[in-house]
Each structure stands twice: as structure tokens, then as C-alpha cells.
Amino acid sequence: MKLGRFFASVLALFTMVEGGQAQSLSAAEIAAMVDERMGSVDEYAELLNDPDPDRSLAAMQIMIGLEDAQISRMALQHGLTSTSPGVRKAALKAYLDTGPILNIYIDGSSLDRENLTSAINQQSGTVDSSGTAFLSYKVGGFDAENGCYDFHVNASYCLLTLSESNVSMNLWSRWTSMRLNAEGNLVGMLQVANIRPSVPVTVPVKP
User: Fold this and answer.
1) Residue 198 DSSP label
2) Phi-psi map region of 184: left, alpha, beta (phi>0 left; psi -120 to 50 alpha)
3) CA 18, CA 157: separation in Å to the nearest integer?
4) Model's pTM, two decimal places?
5) 3-class secondary structure, 124
6) Could you list the pLDDT tens digit for every one of the 207 residues in the chain?
7) 188: closest CA among 177, 198, 196?
8) Which residues lie across from 177 on neighbouring strands?
């Protein structure tokens, strides 16, 4: 995380130099600017690590919804790596509430390529030469009555449900249970259309 903040600061400084704004800055002034940028990010980290769990949780939920990708990513990572199932669920919910685009990767290398390609094409997806299928869905709003997140182009179609321990995704009118792994990805086994057997599916969780 520190390297990410450092590179972001350096990139900002290079941008200033290219614009002719940093020609007269000394090394000490540049170092001070880097420290200021890194310090502001550290302030967000302090909020996430507040000893009051309610304040920490509220900070995480708010920060995940921010337009600043760096801060949002930090808060999401904080929540997804928590040892508390409740915090992980809250992080996932805050993430889904932002209406993200989910990139879905399906390992279809063991499936009949023609049948796989046909099924994926019907969902406006693609299949590469190795048999990896790719789909992309944007999450819609939360349907409180049905307890699910809608598919953004069809409010009557439940796309996702969220429980204490997993996420269930509705693809090909079939619910697939997915769990969060250590890398921050949702993983599970998916049956593509009516093609058997089920194969691994991965959905990265990121802003």
C-alpha cells in the first residue's frame, strides 16, 4: 500500500513538471509535497483502524463509495481482509451498492468449445483461445422486497444475493454460490447454460 501511495505521489509530481509548474521546486519542497500526500492517505487509514468498531465500520462504508479510487480501494481491501464475517459482508455490500461492473472469468477449457462459445455469445461475452470465457455485468439497485441486487438493465431480474458467508449469482437462471478468497476474488463452481460439468468461475472484487 505504501508503494502505491508513493508511486501515485511521484506520478502527480511528474505531471506538474511536464506542465512547467515544478521548475523552481527544491528537493526539500518536493519531499514535503510527497509527505503531505502520503500523510493525507494515512489519515484515512487511521479512520479505518479506529478502536471504536462502529466508527471504523462507518468509515469503511463511506470510503468505499468515494470517487477517489485509491481511497475506495484501500477501504475495500481493509474490509475484505477483515477476520470478522460481518465486516467482510459490510464491505461487499458497500461495494455492490456502488453499482460496479462485475468482470466474470469462467475456466471453460474442459468444456466443448463450440457449445461454450455459443452459450457465452448469447450473453454478449467472449471466449479466448485457451477456453477462458469472459462476461461483464453491471450491478443494478437493491431490491428490498426480494432481497437481491438487480441486473441494471432489468429491474425484475435478481442478479445477486448477499449472505453472511457468501454471494450467490444468478446466471443462466441458475444460482451459483461464491465465496471470497484471500486474494479478494469471489470464486465458485458454475454450470454454463446446460453444459456439464460445472467449471471454476472467478469475479475480482475491486473499484
Assistant:
1) -
2) left
3) 49
4) 0.77
5) coil
6) 443 444 454 445 445 544 455 557 777 777 777 666 655 667 888 899 899 999 999 999 999 999 888 899 999 999 999 989 899 999 999 999 999 999 999 999 999 999 999 999 999 999 999 999 999 999 999 999 999 999 988 778 899 999 877 899 999 999 999 999 988 899 999 999 999 999 999 999 987
7) 177
8) 168
